[in-house]
Design goal:
alpha+beta, Cyclophilin, 4-stranded mixed sheet, 5 helices
């Protein structure tokens, strides 16, 4: 088997792979994003500098001039593997004040009182699916369907840092102030992104997050 495969060969052989740049290879994952992310990290394929999970896909960043790893296509067909030797997923407890501007509206929409909604959210083990939008912004999966909400019709120009919000099927906490179209239900003082820390982001894909009422 050769050390790598060229772009044309990869694009002919499989639909889930798509080139985004000369070094960026997008892999469609469906519902198994975290599982494939872990397998790729464990495999340490030559020439792959970074693996970035997203919603239903992964981005593989190749080293300049690197060929597509010969084992990539076989790895994509494999089932789950043992995860020995990988950095273990972590658990986080994040103290939250349920004082968001949209809390009452979200609670009413879901058929809960505000206190009951807070209790429901604190009972969930949310999973970090991927990071994006802002540095350190984690998309937290695991909400019940009743809390899967469309984005606000009128996004806010400025959402304060530390805001806890719901949007689509995800929960998230804004690490920094900025525009946003999710529903604000609470706030936290926990710092989620610090460029001076190693790693800078508090959360990693696969981590578990539990909200605790402050």
């Amino acid at each position: 088997m050769t050390a790598g495969r060229d772009k044309n060969e990869v694009s002919r052989e499989t639909g889930p792979l798509r080139w985004l740049t000369d070094r960026g290879l997008c892999v469609a994952t469906g519902a198994d994003t975290l599982g494939l992310y872990r397998r790729l990290l464990q495999a340490c394929l030559p020439g792959v500098e970074e693996v970035v999970p997203a919603d239903g896909s992964l981005l593989l960043v190749l080293a300049p001039g690197a060929a597509v790893p010969a084992g990539l296509l076989d790895l994509l067909k494999d089932g789950p593997r043992a995860e020995g030797g990988m950095t273990a997923a972590r658990s986080h407890e994040i103290p939250v004040r349920f004082d968001g501007e949209d809390l009452a509206e979200v609670a009413e929409r879901a058929g809960y009182g505000a206190n009951a909604l807070a209790g429901l959210l604190c009972s969930l083990a949310l999973k970090v699916k991927f990071l994006g939008f802002q540095p350190g912004f984690a998309y937290l999966d695991g909400l019940p369907p009743v809390l899967h909400l469309p984005r606000r019709a009128n996004p806010r120009k400025r959402v304060p840092a530390g805001s806890l919000a719901l949007g689509g099927g995800y929960c998230g906490i804004y690490p920094a102030a900025g525009p946003g179209g999710w529903h604000l239900i609470g706030t936290t003082e926990v710092r989620l992104f610090d460029p001076a820390s190693d790693p800078p982001a508090r959360f990693r894909p696969g981590d578990t997050v539990r909200l605790v009422e402050a």
